[in-house]
Amino acid sequence: MPSSFMQNYREKHRHPINKLLHTIGIPTIVVSLPLFFFNWRLALALFVGGWVLQFVGHFIEGNQPAFLRNPIYLFIGPLWFLRRVGEALHLLRPEGTERTDAARR
Asked: Which of 95, 35, 41, 14 shows the shortest CA–CA distance to 22?
């Protein structure tokens, strides 16, 4: 997947409150999807709640959700979340940090 999608996504999600709301909202939406097969009311509440968090985040950030311009961003959001989790667990280096030759030795 082109890194420009992820880079653009990061640029639209700089405000710490927006990041926090997306960090909660994205997994809430993802978890809600399979729950529709078991408890549609709970799933619907989680789904709507997750989207509300994201739209509030974009209101605070002062921009529109990226998926309104290109639906591919509906998939980029969960990848962004997984990347944040990987960085927090030190499984991935933060984007933009390159290892120098000295660090490789």
From this structure: 14
Tell me phi and psi for residue 65, to 5 degrees.
-60, 140
Cβ burial of 10 (10 Å; 0-12, 13-18, 19+) is: middle
Q: Decide: 81 and 87 in contact? Cβ < 8 Å.
A: no
Other beta carbons within 10 Å of 40:
12
Q: What is the pLDDT of residues 31-86, one digit of tens each?
A: 999 999 999 999 999 999 999 999 999 999 999 998 998 999 999 989 988 988 99
- Contact of 57 with 3, CB cutoff 8 Å: no
User: CA dist 58 to 2, 28, 52, 55, Å?
Assistant: 23, 17, 10, 5
Contacts with 33 (C-beta within 8 Å, 6 or more apart), sequence order: 43, 47
Element (H, E) at 86: helix 73-88
Do 58 and 77 contact (CB within 8 A), yes or no?
Answer: no
